[in-house]
Each structure stands twice: as structure tokens, then as C-alpha cells.
Design a protein that fits this description.
heterodimer; A: alpha+beta; Ribosomal Protein S5, domain 2; 5-stranded mixed β-sheet; 4-stranded antiparallel β-sheet; 4 helices; globular; B: mainly beta; OB fold (Dihydrolipoamide Acetyltransferase, E2P); 2 domains; 5-stranded mixed barrel; 16 strands; 0% helix; RNase_PH (chain A); Exosome complex exonuclease 1 (chain A); PNPase/RNase_PH_dom_sf (chain A)
């Protein structure tokens, strides 16, 4: 296996799904439109104003809410409240203990700013002027659809903390692998995807707070993916409401 | 008492429709959506409470609000009575840390300022800050406004507002007893010190 060192070409990624015409088979035997079983729980009773834990298959996230509390003195006066989001991954969250992994585009800063944009549309900031609400999300295990799980968990924690919101926020992501649309992708499926659609949706008001679209899409597929994800978000909204009712 | 307010037994979550604008006024924890049919939505998790209108008001609708949720610690609002601890006294103002709002304590302290003109109601330009407050005093004050980026503006310009508890600067450090609306006395040494004292009933 001698190679002349005059030129360099990166090694072609070994992709499992070479033939795009075939049907994708999910490794955990779910249907294409079937989300992973979800376990969510609120309440911590410690220094945080509110908190929630979410486990969607192998993705596990804890979100704690602090506030409304005094803004830093250096900040300018503001008539409406401020939101501060921070997402961090634990060192054992991913199989390889490294931030720069092949095929893993999102890092902590990206997730934080996307979480901020999603929550910005749903929290009633004018109910706590001059103060700041801090949202801290900790990803204990990253098993795919991380942003969606973080958003749903954060909205549950905010409701637990008593922060006024227009509605609960639920989020799912849909991956396009070849011609198939699969919902709630795992890590393995995200590595193979050609495109990803993540939406944050308000189930009771039928409004979308955030849409993130990456990869190659045709218009028809986007429509289909939106319908699939809105329907799933709707069902997830009922799950979240039941958890809030039972925790009282 | 039983006929005044109704409490629902089911728990409402944010985003649920709790009523219609034609029959209810949105109160705390609810908001009005103008987009469709003027529905009233909940914005908190808790129980609905419907309060009938006062007999003198012209609007005959009841008010709906969401109560009963373990809400976050209190935040100071304009017009609320707060308990604060004085941290710094300067010639024109005093800084205080707000610790309770009404009857609830805060989770983390907020910064407040008592300006010279807000200490008392009469002769406000002749106020001596050092004769009104000392660092460490506990005061009851009223929130005048949200203030600037640094602190809320507080006022003690009423009889029932001012210092409620203070330590003596003499050797003993005992809690002083008020003897008039401008003086407090240490019970063990008899030393009299000047404060703007609150009239506690």
C-alpha cells in the first residue's frame, strides 16, 4: 500500500447508506414516523427556580432555570426582561471525548444561540422588566436530535419555574436519508442524513417559533417534513401538559 | 367567602384557552390573543381563579387569573413594600439590598437606592443621610420605580416606612429600641442614635 506523498486527498467517508434508492432500516426497529419513547420529569427543589430532565432514547438532558434575577450591573437598562441561554455538553456525552468530530456540526455555542432564538418567541419578556432569566442546559448523553430534546426540556423547566409564556414549546427533528423522511433521528441516522429539519412549535396556538433547515431539500419534501413534524410536536405537547399536571 | 371566588380543580398549563374576552377580563397569568376569536390563554401553570367584579365598576365581567403555582421568588414591582438591608451610606443617597417583597423573600438580592429627597416627606433638602441610616440597618421601604440599570429607587417618606431594626454602634452591639421618630436607644448602654424610624403598629 505505497502512496506517493506529493498529493493529498482526504479519505472518502465510509457511509453505510451508499445506495439512495433502497429503504433505510432503523437500527432500533422503529417506524419512520415513530418517535423514541420519551421520559420527562420536572422539579428539583434546590437553588434553581425550576428544572426538568428529559430522556428520549439515549439522549439525556437536564435544564435548570434561574431567575428572574438581577441583571449584571454593566448591562444597559431594559424595559423587558433578558434571556440568557447556555448549553454545555458533559465530557462523557459523546462516544469520542472531543469537540471536533467528523460529521458532528453543532457545538455548544450553536446550540446555545439556537435555544435562545427558539425560546425568545415564546417567553413573555415584558412580565419581568430589568431582570434576567438564566437557562442552563446540560447534555448528559448526546444520542441524536439534541437540539429538539433541549428545547422541549427547557420549555418544561420554564413552566415549572413559573415564568410566563405564551405557550409550551415542543420540538422534533426530521432527517432526510435518500428518499426517506425519518423522524427523531439517532446519532447514527444523523451521520447518514442528507438534510435535517428541526422545528420548535407551540401546540395550542398552532404557531412555529423556530425552523432550522440544513442540507438538500426539494419543496415537496419540505412540505411533507413540516407536516410530519407538526403532527409529532402536537402529540408531544399533550405529553408535556400531562407531566405538568401530575407534578402539581 | 364561599360565593366570592371559584377555584377550578384542574390544573391549567401555558397556552390553554381558559375563557373568552366577552365574558372575562384577563388577569395575572393570562393574556389575550387578538389573532383569533379574542380567546384568553393561560401563561402560567396553576389553578384558575375567577373573581367577580366589584359592585362599583362599570365593567360587569369577572376577572380570571392563575394562582396556586409554586412561582419563582418575588421580584420588586412599583408600589410594593420591601424590606431591605442598608449596605452603603453616602452624602446624597444610601444603597440597600432588597431581601423581601411584601411577605415573600427573594431568592437572590436586588439592589436598591434611597435618594436624599426620598428619605422623608418634609424638609427634604435638609436631610442628613448619616442621621437617617447606618450600614446594617433593616428598613421598610416603598418601591418608587424600576430606577436605572443599577438599582431600584426606594422611598421611606411615610410614617410607617424607615428603619425597623438597627444595631447599636456602642460596644454591646445590641438591637436598639426606638424612642421617637428620629432616635433609637441602646438598651444596655443607654446611647441614643439618630435614625429615620418607622412607626410600627
Amino acid at each position: 500500500m505505497s502512496s506517493s506523498l506529493s498529493t493529498y486527498a482526504p479519505k472518502k467517508l465510509q457511509r453505510r447508506f451508499e445506495n439512495k434508492e433502497k429503504e433505510w432500516i432503523r437500527s432500533d426497529n422503529r417506524g419512520f414516523l415513530q418517535c423514541r419513547p420519551a421520559f420527562l420529569k420536572t422539579g428539583s427543589g434546590n437553588a434553581a427556580s425550576g428544572s426538568a430532565f428529559a430522556e428520549f432514547g439515549s439522549t439525556k438532558v437536564i435544564v435548570s432555570i434561574f431567575g428572574p434575577r438581577e441583571s449584571k450591573k454593566a448591562m444597559m437598562y431594559s424595559d423587558i426582561g433578558r434571556l440568557n441561554c447556555s448549553v454545555s455538553l458533559t465530557t462523557f456525552a459523546t462516544p469520542v471525548r472531543s469537540k471536533a468530530m467528523m460529521g458532528f456540526e453543532q457545538n455548544e455555542k450553536d446550540l446555545s444561540s439556537m435555544l435562545y432564538k427558539a425560546l425568545e418567541g415564546v417567553i413573555k419578556l415584558d412580565t419581568f422588566p430589568k431582570t434576567t432569566v438564566d437557562v442552563f442546559a446540560l447534555v448528559l448523553q448526546s444520542g441524536g436530535s439534541d437540539l429538539s430534546v433541549i428545547i422541549s426540556c427547557a420549555s418544561l423547566a420554564l413552566a415549572d419555574a413559573g415564568i410566563q409564556m405564551y405557550d409550551l414549546l415542543t420540538s422534533v427533528s426530521v432527517a432526510r436519508v435518500g428518499n426517506n423522511l425519518i423522524i427523531d433521528p439517532t446519532n447514527e441516522e444523523e451521520n447518514e442524513q442528507d438534510g435535517n429539519l428541526t422545528i420548535a412549535y407551540m401546540p395550542s396556538r398552532n404557531e412555529v417559533s423556530q425552523v432550522t433547515l440544513t442540507g438538500e431539500w426539494s419543496t415537496g419534501k419540505i412540505n411533507q417534513a413540516m407536516e410530519i413534524s407538526v403532527a409529532a410536536c402536537f402529540k408531544l405537547g399533550d405529553v408535556l401538559r400531562n407531566i405538568l399536571r401530575e407534578s402539581e | 367567602m364561599a360565593g366570592d371566588e371559584e377555584r377550578d380543580d384542574t390544573i391549567t398549563t401555558p397556552g390553554e384557552v381558559v375563557g373568552h374576552f366577552s365574558s372575562l377580563i384577563p388577569g395575572r397569568g393570562t393574556y389575550l390573543c387578538h389573532k383569533n376569536h379574542r380567546d384568553i390563554y393561560a401563561s402560567l401553570t396553576g389553578h384558575c381563579k375567577i373573581t367577580p367584579p366589584s359592585p362599583t365598576s362599570t365593567d360587569k365581567r369577572s376577572t380570571i387569573e392563575i394562582v396556586g403555582h409554586k412561582s419563582h421568588g418575588a421580584i420588586p414591582e412599583t408600589g410594593s413594600i420591601v424590606i431591605a438591608r442598608v449596605t452603603k451610606v453616602m452624602s446624597k443617597m444610601a444603597s440597600a439590598d432588597i431581601m423581601c417583597v411584601g411577605a415573600k423573600s427573594v431568592k437572590e438580592k436586588f439592589s436598591g437606592t434611597i435618594r436624599q429627597q426620598d428619605v422623608r416627606a418634609t424638609e427634604i433638602d435638609k436631610v442628613d443621610m448619616y442621621a437617617s441610616f447606618h450600614p446594617g440597618d433593616i428598613v421598610r421601604a416603598l418601591v418608587l420605580s424600576l430606577g436605572d440599570s443599577r438599582a431600584y429607587f426606594l422611598s421611606t417618606a411615610k410614617n410607617e416606612l424607615g428603619v425597623v431594626s438597627a444595631q447599636s454602634t456602642s460596644g454591646s452591639g445590641d438591637t436598639m429600641v426606638p424612642i421617637s421618630w428620629t432616635e433609637m436607644q441602646c438598651p444596655t448602654t443607654g446611647q441614643v442614635e439618630q435614625r429615620k424610624v418607622a412607626k410600627v403598629v
